[in-house]
Amino acid sequence: MKQGRRNFLKSMGAVSLATSLPLTACQVREKAPAVIGNGKMKLSFRPYELELKHTFTVAGNSRNTTPVVLTEIEYKGLTGYGEASMPPYLGESRESVISFLNKVDLTQFNDPFMLDDILAYVDSIDNGNGAAKACVDIALHDLIGKLVDQPLYRLWGIDPDNSPMTSFTIGIDTPEVVRQKTEEASRFRILKVKLGGGNDREMIETVRSVTDVPLYVDVNQGWSDKQEALDTIHWLAEQGVVFVEQPLPKEKVDDTAWLTAKSPLPIMADEAFQRLSELAALKGVYSGINIKLMKSTGLREAHKMITVARALDMKVMIGCMTETSCAVSAAAQLSPLVDWADLDGNLLISNDIYEGVKVIDGKLTLDDLPGIGIRKLNT
Ligand code: MG
User: Fold this and answer.
1) What whole-number distance in Å separates Cα of residue 216 and Cα of residue 31?
2) CA 374 / ligand 1 centre spacing (Å)
3) Right CATH for 2-153 from 3.30.70.20, 3.30.420.40, 3.30.390.10, 3.40.190.10
4) What separation in angstroms does the CA of 277 have from each of 138, 296, 367?
5) How far is the CA of 330 from the centre of ligand 1 (A)?
6) CA of residue 194 to ligand 1 center, whole Å
7) What's this model's pTM, rounded to 2 decimal places?
């Protein structure tokens, strides 16, 4: 009797398992056939030259074009897009990115969702190479979003309505050109003004002769004296400036800590900050960090940076290089989590080959396209 009851319960259990499990498995397979592993990922890449709408000048250099490398990862009929735009001061070039990508072998992985494994492998290939690593990370994130047909912000549980305004950058130039560029940027509600070229007050006064929108300031390490920097920042605070990015050379750690302690405006680290492992040491030196995918090696580490910076009670901004809508739209997926966004790199070029995040009334506006949220244009 006892034995019979046990068999009965056993068989009931088997029936209930038989009615629940196989159905669930079938549903998963029907909804997302491509999620199942055992395919091979194929990475391809090509160089591309971005043409700038205007000559762009920051403290240190001027340019009319920017080289990038565009990547694609194909897997089960879907394609994830990525991009590398190389920060010149970090020693990356188009040649170094291509050389790095030639060493990346994704065919050893059967499942693109194994991001920790895949990206740890990519990171281990060589030191540095942030942009080269980012163009693999971005394409992989785009791919997994497409595999489950969801934008990344949804996979991260981020409300797209919380996306911030983006600033638009005004480079160092003559008053005539600065005035013209400021007038052309009237659809932006925030401007970022590059300083450190020896004409700081003229730059700000020229912009202020056109508009009273809030201003971000980026000095690109262009100041050298901490007391002069502090005096200028007090003046900038009276001009409606919100924060100052990288005022002093990154090596001047003690001077920067002194400046941050006395400054009426937040002091943000850009050139002084690249990887997550460096973040804790910046607490007390800077008020916050400028995250760029090309420094962080992509979206996965950038997301972690935001979490750690918040735990350290630091401000967070997300920026970009001169990039197509590919890398800019990828960064925009994280933008609802940050204090300030400076994602205008795609708006500075005349030959974008993707369509992605839009700026509507100055605000980054995310749509519901899967992955990083872009379409490839027919060019
Ligand atoms: Mg900067």
Assistant:
1) 45
2) 25
3) 3.30.390.10
4) 20, 10, 32
5) 18
6) 9
7) 0.87
